[in-house]
């Protein structure tokens, strides 16, 4: 039984923390972005018109 417990503890101790996992995922996502330009973003008005949720102002 001690070998099973030792194996479990070794695996448990070597796992990523939540913070480490989130940082890794963020790095992976950022690596997928090859180019970004803020000027390509839609304006607030365009977003609401696109989704048909334009409310009378």
Write the layout of secondary structure elements.
Layout: H1 2-14, H2 18-32, H3 44-50
Description:
With 57 residues, this protein is an all-alpha fold. It has three helices and no strands. It has one domain. Keywords: Coiled coil. Residues 5-39 form a coiled coil. This is DUF3563 domain-containing protein.
Give a short synopsis of this structure:
61% of the residues lie in helices and 0% in strands.
The H/E string reads HHH
The helix tally amounts to: 3
Number of strands: 0
Structural class of the secondary elements?
Answer: mainly alpha
Low-pLDDT parts are none
Q: Estimate what percentage of residues fall within beta strands.
A: under 5%
Q: What general outline do the C-alpha atoms trace? A: elongated
- Determine the fraction of residues in helical runs and give it as a percent range: 55-70%
Average pLDDT figure: 82
What is the CA-based Rg, rounded? 23 Å
End-to-end gap: 70 Å
Major sheet description: none
Q: Tell me the count of domains.
A: 1
